[in-house]
Amino acid sequence: MRELGSLEREAMEVVWGAEEPVVVHDVVAVLNARRAQPLAYTTVMTVMNNLVAKEWLARHRVGRAFAYRAVEDKDSRTARAMAEALEESADRRAALVGFVGRLGAADAAALRAALEGGE
């Protein structure tokens, strides 16, 4: 999966935060509530279509509009990004040691529990 631009990331946050699939109008409303300079509907529609092309979103027709949902939840996407970053490393052990070295105590304990088969 390709990486996201800042507006794409903002749109994904809106989609991930929604209980149900969203239409562009809903995303525009949430994004513009946070901005001094409002975004055009067509700008957000283009962003949503780009996210479909990048396989971050899936869509289905609802009347004359499309409803969008995330292909993966945020936690699954984060896990995928971590695995992809590890695959790109020339020295996987060094990358893992470096990652673990940056963890705080709570995250290290959570990782330890996951490795031991717990949650």
Features of this protein?
Arc Repressor Mutant, subunit A, 3 strands, BlaI/MecI/CopY family transcriptional regulator, WH-like_DNA-bd_sf, 119 residues, three-stranded antiparallel β-sheet, mainly alpha, 60% helix, 6 helices
Average pLDDT: 92
The general outline is elongated
Q: What is the rounded distance between the termini? A: 27 Å
The main sheet orders its strands as 1-3-2
Give the number of helices. Answer: 6
Provide a descriptive summary of the structure in words.
The protein is mainly alpha-helical. It folds into two domains: 6-70, Arc Repressor Mutant, subunit A, CATH 1.10.10.10; 74-115. Helices cover 60% and strands 12% of the residues. It has helices spanning 6-17, 24-33, 41-53, 74-88, 92-101, 105-115; strands spanning 22-23, 57-62, 65-70. Strands 1-3-2 form a three-stranded antiparallel sheet. Strand 2 (57-62) and strand 3 form a beta hairpin. The longest helix is centred in the C-terminal third of the chain and has 15 residues, at 74-88. The model has no long low-confidence stretch (mean pLDDT 92). Keywords: DNA-binding, Transcription, Transcription regulation. This is BlaI/MecI/CopY family transcriptional regulator.
